Amino acid sequence: MSIKQFNGSYIANEDRLLFRFNTADDSEIRFWLTRRITFFILAATAHLVEKQLEKIHPKTTAKVISEFQQETAREKADFSTAYQAVTKFPIGADPVLIVDVRCTLLEVEGQSVMSMDFVMQSGGQINMKLALATLQTMRVLLERLVLQSRWTDGPDAWIQNGVSAATEEVAGLPLSPSSDPKQVH
C-alpha cells in the first residue's frame, strides 16, 4: 500500500478525529481516532524513533535529533494541496473506529520503517508500514488536529471559552462555589 496523501479533521459532535489516507491505486481508508488512540500514536511513535536514534547517539543527542527531524517535517508539511478524491474504499466508505494501535520500528532493506497495526472495532486490522519521513508527516497532521480539537486545553479553558459555561449547572452539579465551605458540590 503506497500512501499518497493524509487528510484529517476534528469532528466536534463525535469528539473524534476523522483520519483518512489515499493510496497510489486510488483507494481510501477512513478511520475514527479517539483522543486516547491519537495520543498513543503520537507518544509511541516519538518514543520508538528516539530509541532507534539512541542506538547510534547518546540519549540527549538522540532527543535533539528527533525534535529537529519533527520540526523539519512541520516546516515541509504541505497543507495547501487539495486532497484528491478516490474511487475505491476497501473497508467501506464509512470510517471505522480504531480501538488499538500496535507500533513497531523495523529495519527494511537498511531503512527504518514504522509498522503500525490499526485494530478496528470489528476485530480486523490494517497494517501500515511507513518510512520515517512519511511517519513524521502523519504526526504533523495529528498534532495539528489535536490543537484544532483543543483536547489539551483542559476543563478550565473549556469553561472560559463557553463550552460548559452556558449554564450554571452541568449534569445537575452547580459550577458556583457553595456558601458552606464544608459542602462540596
Describe the fold and architecture.
- There is one protein chain.
- This protein is α+β, with helices and mostly antiparallel strands and 185 residues long.
- It has two domains: 3-152, no CATH class; 155-185, no CATH class.
- It contains four helices and eight strands.
- It has helices at 35-54, 59-76, 132-149, 155-160; strands at 3-11, 16-23, 28-33, 96-108, 111-120, 125-131, 169-170, 173-174.
- The strands form two sheets. A six-stranded mixed β-sheet has the order 1-2-3-4-5-6, with helices on both faces. A two-stranded antiparallel sheet has the order 7-8.
- A hairpin with a 4-residue loop joins strand 1 and strand 2 (16-23).
- Helix 1 (35-54) packs antiparallel against helix 3 (132-149) and helix 2 (59-76) crosses helix 3.
- The model is unreliable at 164-185 (pLDDT under 50).
Strand order of the largest sheet: 1-2-3-4-5-6
Number of domains: 2
Oligomeric state as shown: single chain
Strand and helix order = EEEHHEEEHHEE
Gyration radius, to the nearest Å?
Answer: 20 Å
User: Structural class of the helices, strands and pairings?
Assistant: alpha+beta
Question: What percentage of the residues does DSSP assign to strands (E)?
Answer: 25-35%
Estimate percent helicity: 25-40%
